[in-house]
Amino acid sequence: MWTRNISIEIDLLPRVMSYCRVVALTRVGWSNAATSSATQKIPSLAEAAIIVSSNITGANVNALIDFVSISGIQQNDLISLRFPPGFNVSQAIAVSGSFETRHVAHCGTDCLVSPEMVTVVYVASTSLPASTQISLTVNGIANRNSAGASLPFELRLLNAAGTFTTEEDLEIPGISLQAGFLGQSSVRLSDERTSSNNTVGIAFVLSNRNPWPSRMEKFSSKFLPSLISVC
Amino acid sequence: MLTICSGDCGIDLRSTSSRLHVVILFIIDIQRQRVTLLRSGGNSLSVNSQVQIFVANVRNDDVVGKTEKISVVIATQQGYEIDLVQIDGVHIASGNLTNSTVDLVDATAYSITKAQVCFVTRFVGLLPNSLVSITFPSNHQISDDFSEIIFEGIIVSKPISLTGNTVHISVESFTRVCVTLKNIRNYHAGPTSYYQIVTLSITRRIILEQNCLLKQIL
Q1: Are residues A218 and B47, on separate chains, in Cβ contact within 8 Å?
Q2: Is the Cβ pair A218, B37 closer than 8 Å?
Q3: Is the Cβ pair A207, B83 closer than 8 Å?
């Protein structure tokens, strides 16, 4: 009788507690048993980055996605991208030859689908081996309409059915959005004389990216010093 | 400089896009030179819409010249900016002094006489530490002896000074000002050229108000 280590590979859903019971079985019956448990973890993507072509509010941008898969990608595997809240991906389309956009969002393990998700299918016939640098471009993304820092991007590799996640990075740095520009602006005073009370006419054209939402939005007009007071 | 709104502030917004949009705006905040308006309903204005907003009861600067740039920002209710623009400053013209007169007590040529200069300020008035600058025609001679200058209805904060044919007087605020200067000599008979009265900011030496055109003395 001797003891040896045996490795058994089992495909299990990540983040699910798995139990293992080992028991020696002889011709005379069961021997002592040992149990163990472990929770599967989703491997992390390496060097994941998403760069958008503009950080102006509402701009129509291209997104360049880079990452390294530690396990490789098979034909029909899915890449699920989640843009930060407020981004519009309804017109998104993958332009890299080996990838196609799928207009049904898949999310994988422990994930809820949201409107900012884009799913891309790897359609090439040859598999990408492990540790391959992968790049793809997705066009037709509209930036969020308001300035400020965005939440992180999320990137997941899914099986072909989109039912579980094989690798992921949920903390890809977001971007800092900057306000766009109003056009054809002018200011006119009804009375230009010093210290007179007058009505200021401010004219401008909304940008070609951002409408002025109907409710609960501010128009903030800042009169810098020397036009003096609003009374 | 800021005067807090004591009544309703008039706000009007017009959009000249394909159809008229009426948008209700409220002033929700005034901080120094910044006024913030809040939309409370109406239709969404589509991209490229032309928009006009009128803000009533804005008081101009006291001094003449171009203002600093004016910033206009559209933001979300949480304060995140959507779009913005920096507009070139507007030009502030001088206010007009009214009822301005210059009377020479003795209009005889070559006589040494007193001159009474009166005017009424407009919106600016005479600010503390402002200057009144009176420029006499070139055919007048002004003595530097101002010991008998008389001010009516104003408090003199500082003695006057003389630069060429211009008398500078520092005064505190009031609306009607009369100054009598002595030792003015008019060399020639006949019409004089124009007298000029200007109020100035003493710190910035910038015009506040001035008379349009003062009468000629025969």
Answers
A1: no
A2: yes
A3: yes
At residue B184, does pLDDT exceed 80? yes
Chain B hits for A223, CB-CB cut-off 8 Å, are 33-35, 58, 70-71
Longest dimension (CA), chain B: 76
| Rounded distance between C-alpha atoms, residue A146 and residue B80, angstroms | 6
Asked whether the beta carbons of residue B39 and residue A218 sit closer than 8 angstroms, the reply is: yes
Indicate the residue type of B190: G
- Which residues are CB-neighbours of B105 under 8 A, at least 6 positions away? B113, B114, B115, B116
Indicate if the pLDDT at residue B148 is higher than 60.
no
Interface of B with A in 48-67 (CB under 8 A): 48-64, 67
Cα separation, A153 vs A50, in Å, equals: 7
- Pairing assessment for the beta strands A180-181 and B81-87 based on DSSP bridges: parallel
Minimal-distance CA residue of chain A relative to B44: A214
The yes-or-no verdict on residue B213 having pLDDT over 60 is no
CA distances to A67, A132, A205, B95, B191 from B126, in Å: 70, 78, 40, 12, 30
Short-list B21, B25, B23, CA closest to B10: B25
Say whether B70 and A224 touch across the interface (CB within 8 A).
yes
Mean pLDDT by 10 residues, chain A (231 residues): 70 72 83 84 90 96 95 93 94 90 85 92 92 93 94 95 91 95 88 80 87 60 40 32
Domain limits, chain A: 46-177
Site from B58, B88, B203 to mutate, A interface, most A CB atoms within 10 angstroms: B58
Q: Is B37 on the interface with A (CB under 8 A)?
A: yes
CA distance B8 to chain A (A): 9
Question: pLDDT over 90 for what percent of chain B?
Answer: 0
A115-129, B98-112, B168-182, range with the lowest pLDDT: B168-182
Judged by DSSP in three states, B207 sits in: strand
- For A181, counting Cβ atoms within 10 Å of its Cβ (0-12 exposed, 13-18 middle, 19+ buried), the class is middle
Residue B202 burial (10 A CB sphere; 0-12, 13-18, 19+):
middle
Q: Residue A198: name the closest of B54, B33, B52, B30 by CA.
A: B54
Domains in chain B: ranges and CATH: 11-92 (no CATH), 95-211 (2.60.40.690)
Are A221 and B76 within 8 A, CB to CB?
Answer: no
CATH 2.60.40.2230 fits A46-177, yes or no: yes
Torsional class of A209: left (φ above 0), alpha (ψ -120 to 50), beta (otherwise): alpha
> Quick check: B94 contacting A, CB < 8 Å?
yes
